[in-house]
Write a structure and sequence with these properties.
The chain is α/β, with parallel strands linked by helices. Helix content is 34%, strand content 13%. The two termini are 29 Å apart.
Length: 407
């Protein structure tokens, strides 16, 4: 790869040409007419103008966001290149590695249709109450050794009791004492101001509470709480100094308009981090088998659109990227600046070393690593060779087992 000229994107250290530099300019600068498969005439996206606004931290319009989602696959590389220019302007070639620690698995009273831990779920996941503190410590150490910049402590349930908050606060203090430079994100469900303030005082940097889908679609996926409940919690986090992390799950039957609605609403709520998950159709949940329409191109268009709407926010390719983006995952790194390392809450991710190699091969560097070598934990793969299409590989390592965590 060729180094960038001195007058290109700033940020310190060596830089490399991004995908944008290899795209024929005429493919993105001209505003021409194109007839889509739906038979309607539309103006080709003015990606140059969208990129210019993104470099200034401005969002594209809702109409442009819809056009990105509905663009043809022939336009995909130009769209990724344009979104990638915005991504590199704010984040250079850095990738933030996040690591999930599932403190309590299953046993949730909520009925979110997508979730393997939901009330009434028949998914064959591990179920356990609060994990042994030593197991948590070992998992955290594995993730940090693998290069994680942020550790995400998660527990299933509607929301924590005061005793639960105190339990997690102890874990946060311990982690921060051992690793003061590692960020901690907590995800315990709905919290009030008192509990949020306590979590912040313990040393947590961020709190995750996903919107998941649009207000207009929320009743289709959950009946035990509302979209407004979720957004109210985001405001609680902001009031108490916790960086709000809130994202979506794409592919749950929402329309393009609904997907655009929630992404813009998250911008209006001022979230700092936007994880974009793609539906994992767990057997034993109402949405089992519901991801047949998801393709790598479909996912990449959504990631690019989120980048254009949230140009200077952390955009994360989260759960489902391995299953749905597959061999095109390196292209996702041109758009997002954050991924999860290792396993998810109840499903397996890629081996940590594999993701780190993908990052290196793409000319990216883990955020905060400063080029230092990283130690990788050896893990065994439990991915069955004969899994049917769209089957979700259930996590069988890390907390809740005797097998080392995947990092």
């Amino acid at each position: 790869m060729t180094p960038l000229d001195d007058d290109t994107i700033s940020g310190g250290g060596p830089h490399w040409r991004c995908l944008m530099d290899y795209i024929e300019p005429r493919s993105i600068l001209n505003s021409v007419q194109d007839v889509s498969s739906l038979g309607r005439t539309r103006a080709l996206l003015n990606l140059a103008d969208m990129t210019e606004r993104g470099l200034s931290g401005e969002s594209i319009t809702r109409e442009e966001a819809l056009e990105v989602l509905r663009s043809s696959n022939d336009e995909l590389m130009s769209i990724i290149a344009a979104a990638g220019k915005v991504r590199r302007h704010f984040f250079d070639n850095r990738v933030r590695l996040n690591y999930l620690v599932n403190l309590k698995s299953g046993l949730c009273p909520e009925d979110c249709s997508y979730c393997s831990q939901r009330l009434g779920s028949r998914a064959e996941i591990m179920k356990y109450s609060w994990a042994d503190p030593q197991k948590v410590h070992d998992a955290v150490e594995a993730g940090i050794a693998g290069g994680a910049r942020r550790v995400c402590m998660v527990a299933s349930g509607h929301g924590p009791s005061q005793r639960d908050v105190e339990r997690v606060n102890g874990m946060v203090r311990s982690l921060k004492s051992d690793h003061p430079d590692v960020e901690v994100c907590v995800c315990l469900g709905f919290v009030n101001d008192e509990k949020a303030a306590s979590i912040k005082e313990a040393g947590a940097d961020a709190y995750n509470h996903n919107a998941n889908t649009a207000r207009s679609h929320y009743g289709e996926i959950c009946s035990t709480h509302s979209y407004e409940d979720r957004m109210d919690t985001v405001e609680v986090l902001k009031r108490n100094g916790l960086s709000p992390c809130s994202g979506v799950i794409a592919g749950m039957g929402e329309t393009d308009e609904e997907f655009v609605d929630v992404i813009f609403d998250l911008r209006e709520h001022g979230v700092d981090s936007v994880p974009v998950n793609f539906l994992l159709p767990f057997e034993g949940t109402p949405l089992a088998g519901g991801a047949q329409h998801i393709t790598p191109q479909w996912c990449l268009k959504r990631l690019a659109m989120v980048r254009f709407v949230h140009p200077d926010s952390e955009v994360r390719a989260a759960a489902g990227r391995e299953q749905h983006i597959r061999t095109m995952q390196p292209l996702a790194l041109e758009v997002v600046n954050s991924i999860f390392l290792g396993d998810y809450l109840t499903s397996e991710g890629a081996a940590g070393a594999v993701d780190l190699q993908m990052i290196e091969d793409g000319g990216f560097v883990p955020e905060g690593a400063d080029g230092q070598p990283m130690v990788h934990t050896e893990v065994n793969s439990y991915r069955a060779a004969n899994l049917p299409t769209n089957a979700v590989p259930i996590r069988h390592r890390g907390i809740g087992t005797e097998v080392p965590a995947n990092a």
